Predict the 3D structure of the following.
Amino acid sequence: NAGVTQTPKFQVLKTGQSMTLQCAQDMNHNSMYWYRQDPGMGLRLIYYSASEGTTDKGEVPNGYNVSRLNKREFSLRLESAAPSQTSVYFCASSEISRTYEQYFGPGTRLTVT
Amino acid sequence: QQQVKQSPQSLIVQKGGISIINCAYENTAFDYFPWYQQFPGKGPALLIAIRPDVSEKKEGRFTISFNKSAKQFSLHIMDSQPGDSATYFCAAPTGTASKLTFGTGTRLQVTL
């Protein structure tokens, strides 16, 4: 049982480049989430997907898009990266009735220069 | 929009002492209020959670106290150990309880 996996672990982008962060879970969870973590700002929700086929904006969605590819996979895309998107990105998943119990991946550290 | 205010930002406690972290929320859906623990280089992990109709929950050395009327809840770590050194996040259920809003985190250091 791998839990929640994320790729890549580290990435450096130049301003304007695009990339997709991948996330997969093997716990058969319906709900999946993308957060960013910045010093002093805590964890802020970018997008979430309550179930396969649905996605909703979180607190800080601007500059990002998501795809819920299937029940297991939830990807986050940066179309035109900006230095303000330098952050650590976490994917998480939960059972739909247990939102408070989220399982997090190991994170992707992204630097945009 | 939910806001969760967490304090202090950082905390240094001696081994064996009590660590106390506080959170205040504005609005809530009826669901559990969790605390998460995060070690450097790792993702956060659920530590303990409390239902909003309960005033206190204890699991080992960790206790959540919940004051619904004041919209505040706190984490107490008794007999703090160096292995407890981590960042702690509180969170509140938001909207239709389909998501969480996290506090800004407290970096706890337990010294020998």
